[in-house]
Amino acid sequence: MKLDDLVQRNYNRMSANDHRIWQYICQHKTECRKMSLHQMADACEVSQTTVLRFLRMIGMDGYNDFKAFLKWDSLNQTVFDGRSIEQNSLNFIRTISYIQQADCRELFYRMDQAGRIYAYGSGAVQKAVAKAFKGYLLMTEKLLHVIEGYEERIMAMQQMKKGDVVFLFSVSGNNPVMNDYAKNLRDKGMYLAAICQDGANDLSKLCNCYLPFFTQKFDIGHQSMTFSSSAGMLPLVETLMLKYTAYQAAQNAVHTP
Length: 257
Prior knowledge:
Blueprint lengths: L2 H7 L6 H12 L1 H4 L4 H8 L3 H10 L5 H13 L7 H19 L3 H9 L3 E5 L2 H15 L5 E4 L1 H11 L5 E5 L6 H12 L3 E7 L4 H5 L2 E5 L3 E3 L6 E3 L4 H23 L2
Parallel strand pairs: 1-2, 1-3, 3-4, 4-5
Antiparallel strand pairs: 6-7
């Protein structure tokens, strides 16, 4: 496993100091291979203890383990494949095609019956998409409550009632904090809709409805960095809003004399 993979798995647990350390490492991987722990801490403007705490948090045994990962990364440098651009575009198309064909009638029925509808994202991009989804649903005259931060997460759960709908936005679907929250919501009787990448993940198993977006990991070719697009969530929720609008129109037609 690459150093970048370890960080991505623990990204949502990182503090401001952790981000500072990781940013420095990303920009100076060659120099870091020659640095002592003392030099690394000085360069990042943090204590040696803070550096070691960061390394333990991402799953390393110590500084020597970190140096070994840097050496391994240097021996496995990749070259960017231009076909990744086309493949990333195809993933958008697959996402939109999937949600177009998906049977969302149960989800839409639950949305109509719910006292409240909520959305919670586990990261910056996920939160941004949740806010965009709120704007889209306003056009259908539905109010979406976006949950932000730990305190709001707890307060929202206390206010929720059985049958409320909660959209959970996650990239991997394996975020421990998100999945623990999903378990608590499920036990309280909420109807849960997971929006995360396709493939085997824990969040999809915890939720009543699973709406995947398609993505994959691309080698950037710069300092062994990789990239996984999460932008597929946006066209997914746009298309979902349009399908919900069509559902509302069909329901109104049935009940109109």
